Amino acid sequence: MKYDTIIIGGGMSGLVAGIRLRKAGQKVAIVSTGQSALHFNSGSIALLGHEHGHDIKKPLEAIERLKPEHPYSKLGIDNVRKYVGEVAPLFAEAGITLHGSAERNHYRLTPIGMFKPAWLSFEGYATVDDPKNIEWGKVLIVNLAGFIDFYPQFIELGLSKYGIECSSRTFILPGLETLRKSATEMRATNIARVLKDEVILEMASQINSYIKDTNADTVLLPAILGLYDENPIRLLKSKVVRPVHLVSTMPMSVGGMRAQMSLRKYFMKLGGTYLIGDKVTMGRFENDRLVSVNTQNLGDMPLEADSFILATGSFFSHGLEANPTSIYEPIFGLDVVASANRPEWCDMDIYKDQNYMEFGVVNDNDFHVYRDGKRISNFMAVGAVLSGCNSMKEESGGGVSLLTSIKVADDILNGKGGKK
């Protein structure tokens, strides 16, 4: 089977690149093992949140100070400024509402009651412009009885540090009794499948009674609504008499899974091929080009393309792997930026910089990858598999994934992707 572009990896970066290419008329296939880091999303996407241990208020200004090998530096500030404005509209086309600005970070409330800088946040999530000036008044924290992935006491303790008065309530919904029989079933994604229509109206009625009892001004609720679309969130907010904000839960993430499914659905609606539950096992190279790949499910039937994109992520999703002596890219044997001295991979103090977070595939300024020291002219990498940034320390992972994906897709469309 022949395509214009084949993308290895079906998470956020792979899907965004695929959508961009498909909208321009390319024949595109994505090979995905199934689960991506987006399933664990916090409810927000970060562009650049931390610098030298301090929060960043203006990420675009901070990006100009990054080291040359950072993916943002390779993109160039002009491209960064161009592409940040294209992300929210692209997500909106897929049915995902994002709020925020690259000019100034806002702050999202985490499951443990802290505030972290963010660039874009999903519809309905708890965010503030500045934690030092939270205009929520008296807060009511509501949890579902038996739900073990949300801890109101952490939220209450965190907000108390900002002088916010909180009270907590727990509600029971008869519609969830079948899930309550097993603690393993009381997970956010399972609950979200049940919370719709009449159940949401009943939920809103209970919350309104708690508001009356506590005289609350704002309601915080675990993000257990809207697995397939945003309508349940909007319905609940319209029926509760005070503003309602969602707080991300421990994994799995309802908002992240909704984004994953919505992007995939949009890509397929555009005519893209999405091979879910499959895995690229090898590639065939000729000179400086990748000619075809084979997958686990298709066996000896190769997939050919003019251009290829590696979007397999980092260690978390096995885009990179390690053994006792080396760190490597497991599918194609691509060159990797990594220390050969194992003790340098990490620090025993978990609060210090961990060098392995900056490891990734070798890539040039256009994100072409290398194999045995040779640049592969039609093979580019995007997202977390790239070297040069510590996305956890910087709070930059989402932005790097999105902006490099758009850049590589545009380069392919402009003839820079190695098409013969």
Keywords:
8-stranded mixed β-sheet; 24% strand; alpha/beta; 4-stranded parallel β-sheet; 12 helices; 24 strands; 420 residues; single chain
Mean pLDDT: 94
How would you characterize the largest beta sheet? 8 strands, mixed
Which geometry do the CA atoms define?
globular
The share of residues in extended strands comes to 15-25%
What value does the Rg take, in angstroms?
A: 22 Å
Helix and strand content put the structural class at: alpha/beta
How far apart are the termini? 18 Å
Please provide the count of β strands.
24
Number of helices: 12
Helicity range: 25-40%
Spans of at least 5 consecutive residues whose pLDDT stays below 50 are none
How is the topology of this model organized?
Layout: E1 2-8, H1 12-23, E2 28-32, E3 44-45, E4 50-51, E5 54-55, H2 59-63, H3 71-75, H4 77-93, E6 98-99, E7 106-109, E8 115-118, E9 120-122, E10 127-128, E11 139-144, H5 152-160, E12 166-171, H6 177-180, H7 188-194, H8 198-214, E13 218-222, H9 231-239, E14 244-247, H10 254-269, E15 273-276, E16 280-286, E17 289-295, E18 303-310, E19 321-322, E20 327-328, E21 336-337, E22 360-361, E23 368-371, E24 374-381, H11 391-394, H12 397-413
Parallel strand pairs: 1-2, 1-18, 2-15, 11-12, 11-13, 13-14, 18-24
Antiparallel strand pairs: 3-9, 4-5, 6-9, 7-8, 7-10, 16-17, 17-18, 19-20, 21-22, 23-24
Helix pairs in contact: 1-10, 1-12, 4-12, 8-9
Descriptive account of the structure:
With 420 residues, the chain is an alpha/beta fold. The chain contains 12 helices and 24 strands. Strands 1, 2, 15, 16, 17, 18, 23 and 24 form an 8-stranded mixed beta sheet that branches. Strands 12-11-13-14 form a 4-stranded parallel beta sheet, sandwiched between helices. Helix 9 (231-239) links the parallel strand 13 (218-222) and strand 14. The longest helix has 17 residues, at 77-93. The chain is globular, with a radius of gyration of 22 Å.
